[in-house]
Design brief:
This is DUF674 domain-containing protein. The chain has 229 residues and is α+β, with helices and mostly antiparallel strands. The chain contains eight helices and seven strands, in the order E-E-H-H-H-H-E-E-H-E-E-H-E-H-H. The protein is elongated, with a radius of gyration of 24 Å.
Amino acid sequence: MTSNSEVSLKLLIDTKGKRVLFAEAGKEFVDFLIRILTLPVGTFINFLKKQELVGSLAHLYESIENLSDSYLQPNQTKDNLLKPVSLVSGSLPLLALNEAPPATVKNFYRCSWCSNGYVTDDPSAVCPCSRQMTTEMTYVPPPPGDEKLVSEGGGFVKGVVTYMVMDDLVVTPMSTISSITLLNKFNVKEVSALEEKVVSFGVDEAVKLLNASLKSKKVLTDVFLEGML
């Protein structure tokens, strides 16, 4: 996420109970929440290591950071281990996490003396026929994606509706009926105690949300109501 990337959320706050009942959100925020599910653990820890993490994962992360490269296998780097790239791609320009840069594209080689089908990424490798595998192969990328899908903004969910995000991050399409049902579910007696507030969601809030999502069932309350009420 870039420093100037923010989206707006409309919170419905129970001022008497000091809690966020839900947030009205667009696709950008919901895409961000879904993207969390695709993040490797190493990426999580990279974002949150300066926060108060519960458990020992931060210590494990730091110890690998301090481990000499001489102990790693030749085909491994610390960036591969500590800043892995999500296997699920998605164009999220507004809430693009500061992930590690894409891995360098490898070159592949074959033997030019036989047609046994063997391939390697190391030009010094020796083919079973005892010849070196030095003939570079040409990589053919898959066909481009559906242009219609790209034009609709990418990400994971459609942007034609507003979404309701609960305090515990449950996501549903927004509807008047579900809002009324929710008020009954949480036993809200005094409608006058309800307050709508528009808040910004940017880098700082994203890190707080990642941290809170690991240990809380009232994530929106923890992120947005601290010091507000």
